[in-house]
Amino acid sequence: MSLPDFPTSDTALQLPGPVGVLEAKLEFPDAGVARQAVFAIVCHPLPTDGGTMDNKVVTTTARALRELGITTLRFNFRGTGNSTGEFDHGVGESDDLRAVAAWLRAANPDARLWLAGFSFGSFVSLKNAVELHADAVISIAPPVAGRGWDFSQIDLPQVPWLVVMGEADEIVEPKAVFDWIDALPEAPTLVRMPETSHFFHRKLIDLRQAIQQWARPLLPPTA
Length: 223
Description:
By secondary structure, the protein is an alpha/beta fold.
């Protein structure tokens, strides 16, 4: 499968992945929003629990970034939606992310790359942030304990890094996340959201605002 040309408008894509097609969606900032030379890949939650690139936390994160002028790319990991393959416990999904990032960088070599992820997607994006030379990282509800994902072996990025965690998360233990951050030699920016569940029910606007408040100072001023 050949690489598609880089779009100039919002486009559904089929990108060549390590085991076949990767379904993706590239979205630009709205007209009237100054475009930044920044591209963000947003990774979705656990496919075996129904996670896809159309998850509301994923789309809210992407929208928050586009409102700041950042172009976003969401994609389905292998075995999800119309992406080829089977779930591979974060190993093959890392290969999927590398393939998507390689396509994005080849088309935009001078742009900055941000990585974002929700739940399982935060594990995959954080795990690969250093290798992919990410310029910033956003981790939403990272499953640091109880889900089988080993965060202790991750080479953590030395770039701006945001963690957003609901204090009433029923899937990822909030205290485990807070204890993990407290033990890190260099802690990320942490936003604790009271009365907030794993899927940010009735809190998506607050999530969007938290992301934008953190991200805005990282961007150059626009005319």
